[in-house]
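Propose amino acids for all 297 sites.
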């Protein structure tokens, strides 16, 4: 666990997503949950040693299984955006993991199948402020990566947790993305949060250069899909965009991304581009689906 400021921490060593914790006099605000039960126990133990107040609240930055499968093990009040909450209304009680080709971290965890979901206790639409004895904590709706994505902002400390808005050393999940909203919110990061400590939900602290790379990747995806549509290409043709997108990460992170990761990331992109193409340009093909389908993104 690494400290950012007074009572503000992040943890990037567990399988799944980067975690956050705000340890204040009234209690601890958790940001996302570890995927594995053993990691959740370790995380809870670590936070108890910080001696915050008696209450606990967990904020899920979106509904992706990597960040929500382990929520139940944290045993506390759960907060998320109302559109992310819609996902849980149509999920079965037990995670069945039908889609195992999305390039998610849960696919590498054998015990993920059979885990029980925990539905949110509190939802909001645009903005929610928390006052737990420390600096104000602001939850803001920032769609793009998923319909229910949010950011956690501590304005006084100049710290922001942005979930999947920017991912580090890996390509983004695209299956349920709104590319216009996503690009707009990345631009907002560059315009309004240049002097903030930015924490990605996949990779930890990011620099402005990382944000600019994310902006370029999203532009590549948007422009590539538009070109395919103009050529009357099929959804399967979206896979042709994968090598070019991966090349951007390989150029910068040649010594960071392993061969095994490259294949998983390629599959993540193939799956995401195909699903995004269908939703964006062939909506009749997915008319029976909704936000709830993002449970196995």
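Proposal:
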């Amino acid at each position: 666990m690494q400290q950012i400021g007074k009572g503000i921490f992040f943890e990037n060593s567990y399988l799944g997503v980067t975690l956050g914790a705000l340890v204040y006099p009234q209690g601890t605000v958790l940001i996302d949950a570890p995927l594995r039960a053993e990691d959740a126990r370790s995380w809870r133990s670590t936070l108890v040693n910080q001696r915050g107040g008696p209450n606990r609240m967990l904020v899920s930055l979106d509904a992706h299984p990597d960040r929500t499968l382990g929520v139940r093990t944290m045993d506390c009040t759960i907060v998320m955006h109302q559109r992310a909450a819609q996902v849980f209304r149509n999920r079965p009680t037990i995670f069945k993991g039908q889609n195992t080709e999305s390039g998610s971290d849960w696919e590498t965890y054998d015990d993920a199948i059979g885990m029980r979901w925990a539905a949110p206790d509190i939802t909001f639409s645009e903005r929610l402020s928390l006052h737990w004895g420390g600096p104000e904590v602001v939850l803001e709706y920032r769609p793009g990566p998923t319909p229910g994505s949010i950011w956690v902002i501590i304005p006084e400390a100049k710290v922001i947790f942005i979930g999947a808005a920017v991912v580090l050393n890996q390509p983004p999940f695209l299956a349920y993305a709104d590319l216009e909203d996503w690009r707009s919110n990345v631009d907002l990061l560059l315009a309004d949060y240049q002097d903030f400590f930015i924490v990605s939900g996949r990779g930890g602290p990011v620099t402005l250069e990382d944000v600019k790379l994310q902006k370029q990747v999203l532009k590549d995806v948007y422009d590539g899909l538009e070109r395919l549509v103009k050529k009357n290409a099929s959804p399967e043709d979206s896979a042709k965009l994968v090598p070019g997108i991966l090349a951007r990460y390989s150029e910068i992170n040649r010594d960071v991304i392993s061969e095994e990761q490259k294949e998983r990331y390629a599959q993540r992109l193939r799956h995401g581009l195909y699903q995004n193409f269908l939703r964006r340009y062939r909506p009749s093909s997915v008319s029976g689906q909704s936000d709830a389908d993002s449970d196995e993104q």
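Confidence is low (pLDDT under 50) at residues 287-296. Residues 2-207 form a domain with the Metallo-beta-lactamase; Chain A fold (CATH 3.60.15.10).
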